[in-house]
């Protein structure tokens, strides 16, 4: 599980090496395109889906496209740790939105405060367009989680993921071609694209599925809450991106909120 999250962030660092030759749309096209081809080859999903399942897969793919496109566009403007942390706040706040418990409200406030600190409330300014793109990451990530759950309930195995990835790749393809053109066919660019697809999509998804089969859901959620910290660490070690003090505090707030929301749960079994 930790290796999967580390792989995702290392893949993002590798993707930054593409920014000199491709646009954010081009980078997204390479990642999603190669990931879709690999997953389709591995799963060989059929196309016989009901209308409702097909609609869910399509919406899931569009959320995946939005999340990835906004992520790589944001990386042009903000550090990796900032993009990952603000994006992670999206599904975290969604998970807390339906709760009426005061403790969950407190975790949501803590996460929101962390995002404000990262965004510059503490004096460390961040590119405003980059912040808007980070908000788009959060929206796409939240949609990915919600729609991914719905897809998994209607499409067995990893077929839904493979088909959703294909939809996402097709959705961003025009932007990739328009923004990068023939650069997408450069051998070195293609090699980096394959590496990004493997590191950021295929390996992490495989690791997460394996982890879900082997460990309790709560342990999985605890480990997942460390993703913002891992993103900040990879950004520091591989990209030399040093977060300002208030931004580091903001990352800690979001991680703390995720850990708190996961660990501080009522013992329902004891109430029965």
From TrEMBL:
Query: A Pfam family this protein belongs to?
Result: EamA
Give the subcellular location: Cell membrane
GO cellular component annotations, sorted alphabetically?
Answer: plasma membrane
**How does this chain sit within the bilayer?**
Multi-pass membrane protein
Keywords, A to Z? Cell membrane, Membrane, Transmembrane, Transmembrane helix
Q: Where is the EamA domain?
A: 130-260
Q: Transmembrane region positions?
A: 25-42, 54-74, 80-98, 105-123, 129-148, 160-182, 188-207, 219-239, 245-264
State the family named in the UniProt similarity comment for this chain: Belongs to the EamA transporter family.
Q: Which PANTHER family match?
A: EAMA DOMAIN-CONTAINING PROTEIN (PTHR42920:SF5), OS03G0707200 PROTEIN-RELATED (PTHR42920)
What protein am I looking at?
Answer: EamA family transporter
